[in-house]
Amino acid sequence: MARKFVITSRGVLRFGEVRMHKDLLQADDICYGGGFYEFDYGGNRLILTGASYDFGTPRWDRLQGFSIQLQIPSEYRGMAIIYRYDDQTIEPLTLTKEFEISYY
Fold first, then answer.
1. Contact call for residues 55 and 65 (beta carbons, < 8 A)
2. For the purposes of burial, counting CB atoms within 10 Å of the CB of 84, is it exposed (0-12), middle (13-18) or buried (19 or more)?
3. Distance separating alpha carbons of residues 101 and 19, to the nearest angstrom
4. Which of 24, 27, 30, 82 pairs with 42 at a CA distance of 20 to 30 A?
5. What is the dihedral of CA 24, 55, 75, 103, to 10 degrees?
C-alpha cells in the first residue's frame, strides 16, 4: 500500500493508501494521471510527486483554461498543495494558486 492520488476529468483530486491508482477511481471517472503524496506538516503543505504506472503523470493542462474547479477533500483546506515534477528544471506547480478550488 502506498499514498497515491489521481486527478479526474471533472477536476476531482482523490487521495488514498491503495495498491493501484485505479483503486481510487469510480466507475464513471476518466483519469488524467496520478502520482504519490506526502505531508509537510511544518510547512503546512501537501506535496504531490511522480506518476501513475497505469495513467501517467498528472495532466494539469487538461484542466487549466476550462473553468474547471479543482475539487479537493475538505481535510486539506488551508494547506498549500504543490506538484513537484520529476524534471527538476520545471518549476513546481502550486495547485492552490493556479486553480480555483472547491472542497468536498
1. no
2. middle
3. 27
4. 24
5. -100
Split at pLDDT 50, 70, 90, the class of 68 is confident
Enter the DSSP assignment of 56. Answer: B
The closest of 87, 78, 104 to 15, measured between CA atoms, is 104
Q: What's at 70, amino acid-wise?
A: L
pLDDT tens-digit map of 49-64:
999 999 999 999 988 7
> 3-class SS at 75?
helix
What residues have CB less than 8 Å from 2, skipping those under 6 apart? 17, 18, 19, 36
Q: Is the pTM of this model over 0.90?
A: yes
- Return d(Cα 100, Cα 43) in angstroms, integer: 21
Our CA dihedral for 95, 97, 102, 103, rounded to 10 degrees, sits at 70
47, containing H or E segment:
strand 45-49
